[in-house]
Amino acid sequence: MPVCANESCNHSASLQCSICTGVFYCSKDCQVTHWPQHKAVCSVSSIRLLPSGTFMVENIDSRHPIFKKGELCPLTALYGHPILIYCPRLHSGRVEGNMANNQAAVYLRIEPSDGLAPISWQTDYLGDCLVARRDKKPISKELLETMHQYHSSLLGSDYFEKIMEGVHPPGHNINQGEFQKFYNEYWKQDGRD
Ligand SMILES: [Zn+2]
Ligand SMILES: [Zn+2]
User: What ligand is nearest to the CA atom of residue 62?
Assistant: First the structure.
C-alpha cells in the first residue's frame, strides 16, 4: 500500500485524490493539510477542441477557470452528467491557438429546446475550446466524439430542420436511442458517478 503523501506522516494510505488520482492519503485530515502543496500539481484531464475538428486530451490545473467560468453543455446536463465547455476567447478575452470557426464547440452549446446555441457562441472565430467534466473526473475522447455525432443527427432531424435550414451536418449520425445507450454505458463503466 502507498505511503501517505503528507510528508510529515508515514502511515499507509488508501484514500486517493479524487481529482488527479495520482496521490494517496491515510486520512481526510492529511489530505486537507497537504492540499496547499498538492493543488499546484493536481491536474484534471480535459479535451481541447480545435477548430480543425481535432479532439486532444490535455491535462489542466484543477483550478483552471473552466471550473468557474465554463458553461454547461445543455444536452449532457439533460442526461444528468454535466460537462463544462470553456472558450478562452469568450470567457477570458484570450486567444488560444487558431482563432477560427469551431463547429464542435457550437454543437456542444446547443440547447435541446430549440436547437440553437447562444448568440455569443455563433461566431466565426471561437478558436480553441476546452471541455471537462464538472466533477473533475477524466473525460474521454470517445464520449465527445459520440456527443458530436448525436448533435449532428439532431441538426439533421425533422425537429431541427425548420430552425437550422441550410445546415448540413457531417455523416455517420446516431439517433437518440443509440446516444442514450452509449451515454448510460459510459457512466456505468466509469463507475464513479
Ligand atoms: Zn497521513
Ligand atoms: Zn490531486
Answer: 2
Distance 78 CA to ligand 2 centre (A): 28
Per-residue model confidence as pLDDT tens digits over 130-173: 999 998 888 888 888 888 777 777 766 554 444 444 444 444 56
Check: CB of residue 46 under 8 Å from CB of residue 59: yes
Q: How many Cβ atoms sit within 10 Å of the Cβ of residue 25?
A: 25
Measured from the alpha carbon of residue 61, the closest ligand is: 2
pTM of the model: 0.75
All structural domains of the chain with their residue ranges: 1-41, 43-188
What residues pack around ion ligand 1 (CB closer than 5 A)? Answer: 4, 6, 9, 11, 26, 30
Position 179 pLDDT exceeds 70:
yes
CA 29–ligand 2 middle distance (angstroms): 15
Closest to 121 in 3D by CA, of 192, 155, 70: 70
Whether 5 contacts 39, CB under 8 Å: no
pLDDT for residue 178: 77
